[in-house]
Design a protein that fits this description.
The chain is of the alpha/beta class. It contains 15 helices and 20 strands. The strands form 5 sheets. A 7-stranded mixed sheet has the order 14-15-16-13-12-17-18, sandwiched between helices. Strands 9-8-7-10-11-19 form a 6-stranded mixed sheet, sandwiched between helices. The structure holds nicotinamide-adenine-dinucleotide.
Length: 470
């Protein structure tokens, strides 16, 4: 893999201030495929200065012109789709077909949505004798995780650009190559120098320096709840705006009368996609006592259709998890599930291949709500199936974690499913298999976060209001 030996700052690739490096590892074969510089506080400072210098010009650019440049960026991503998908597969391990369709396809759709929204959005409104101006917040510090290396970046950069903000991006350590390709695309699209800047580096050094930098007006973070709490505290102390997209432990509630086979198969797919490394993965399946054993058998049969292996092989449906640490962590959770008395019906803690960070697709039955595997985010291909007695019990279990990001309800009819969804403490609910929508606000209740991404709600996060009275 070709990597830039520098940071993209002020419209050019510049050497890093220090000599620290990050090795990029292919999780499917554990080989080092590239190295990128690990940025220091000095690199972050240079990038924030470049973003600040570019801010007045970009904020004053007409919204339609900014939107047109987002459209140009979308076109470059589309033209380079194959190369980006291969890079994501190499550094993350997601099967190539999934990389093309979802890992690159979704952010292209998101960029398209902002190319339209940015041009049509009402940046001014009239309220009584006032005109309210919706103005860009300023310089954004964006910190992203590795699980959707392009999507997480586009979900922040596209709305920030549409709003008239400038940015510094600090991508995850495991997936810096995708971020470098994105910076190339920004350049190729003709987005003015300094509007978007990239500093690769570690969380505790470059991430921390960006979150704490006084030249940053908004910190937009996606990642773990533990780091999010720290970033929220740092930003709060500096009276800085903050958006946090954090972890989840989402419930897939199958009510009596639902199409059980479809609900289970869709639910299993939701967990196995991206090797369970989706923050909104429906990792807790809730099934009525009367249909419980049938659902468990259906789930065991469904995971058998997810062969793991080389992610570049079209037959592979399950790639490795991202790195050695996650490999240990996920298998540790599986061992914990067994230890706490859950019934293993598929998979287990043993690594299924000699090389690569593979985890067997795993299904647990007889999971009780208080078990560790029912409470903590595992971020791997592990499904827990919990029985419930009645609707009230199902609701208690569904709402019984510190998280509230995603969710799903299956019922005989939409009305019943919606009535249940209204009572769920969570930011998104799929009704009877409803599909992902790039315009729908995405974000969490409770400890799953603060703020929303995507669509017009996502754009509003990058705006602040000024009212003029007449
Ligand atoms: P992480 O929190 O360790 O890292 C996320 C990002 O934060 C990385 O870029 C990392 O370098 C940086 N970081 C780490 N420590 C930092 C610090 N002290 N200061 C500043 N930045 C720091 O999370 P991860 O392991 O990369 O990602 C997995 C987690 O992300 C999961 O918990 C998952 O649920 C969550 N996630 C949430 C969403 C969402 O939209 N809600 C989306 C994807 C992932």
């Amino acid at each position: 893999m070709k990597a830039h030996d520098g940071m993209y700052i002020g419209g050019a690739w510049r050497p890093a201030a220090g000599r620290d490096r990050i090795e990029v590892v292919n999780p499917a074969d554990e080989q080092v495929i590239a190295e990128v510089p690990a940025g220091s506080a000095d690199d972050v400072d240079a990038a924030v200065r470049a973003a600040r210098a570019a801010l007045p010009g970009w904020a004053a650019t007409a919204p339609a012109e900014r939107a047109a440049l987002i459209g140009a960026l979308r076109d470059v991503l589309l033209a380079r789709k194959g190369e980006i998908a291969q890079t994501i597969t190499a550094e993350l391990g997601s099967p190539l077909g999934f990389s093309e369709m979802v890992q690159v396809g979704a952010p292209i759709a998101v960029a398209s949505s902002y190319a339209e929204l940015g041009a049509s959005y009402a940046f001014e409104e009239r309220l009584g004798n006032s005109t309210v101006l919706l103005e860009p917040i300023g310089v954004v510090g964006a910190i992203t995780p590795w699980n959707y290396p392009l999507h997480q970046v586009v979900a922040k950069v596209a709305p920030a650009l549409a709003a008239g903000c400038t940015l510094v991006l600090k991508p995850a350590e495991d997936t810096p190559l995708t971020a470098q390709l994105f910076a190339e695309a920004v350049h190729e699209a003709g987005i003015p120098a300094g509007v978007f800047n990239l500093v690769t580096g570690t969380g505790p050094v470059a991430g921390q320096a960006l979150a704490a930098h006084e030249g940053v007006d908004l910190v937009s973070f996606t990642g773990s709840t533990a780091v999010g709490k720290q970033i929220g505290a740092t930003a709060g102390a500096a009276v800085k705006r903050v958006a946090l997209e954090l972890g989840g432990k989402s419930a897939n509630v199958i009510l009596p009368g639902a199409d059980l086979a479809k609900a289970v198969a869709t639910g299993v797919g939701h967990v196995m996609n991206n090797t369970g490394q989706s923050c909104n993965a429906l990792t807790r399946m809730l099934v009525h006592r009367d249909q419980y054993e049938e659902a468990v058998s259906l789930a065991a049969a469904a995971v058998a259709t997810y062969p793991s292996g080389d992610p570049t092989d079209p037959a592979t449906r399950l790639g490795p998890v991202v790195n050695a640490k996650q490999h240990e962590r996920v298998r540790g959770y599986i061992a914990k599930g067994v230890e706490e008395g859950a019934r293993l019906v598929a998979g287990g803690p043993d690594a299924p291949h000699e090389r690569g960070y593979f985890v067997a697709p795993t299904v647990f039955a007889d999971v009780t709500p208080e078990m560790t595997i029912a409470q903590e985010e595992i971020f791997g291909p592990v499904l827990s199936i919990l029985p419930y007695e009645d609707e009230e019990d199902a609701l208690r279990i569904a709402n019984g974690t510190v998280y509230g990001l995603g969710g799903a309800v299956w019922a005989a009819d939409e009305e019943t499913a919606v009535a249940f969804a209204r009572r769920m403490d969570t930011g998104q609910v799929d009704i009877n298999g409803g599909r992902f929508n790039v315009l729908a606000p995405f974000g969490g209740y409770k400890q799953s976060g603060v703020g929303r991404e995507l669509g017009p709600h996502g754009l509003a996060e990058y705006l602040q209001t000024k009212s003029l009275q007449f």
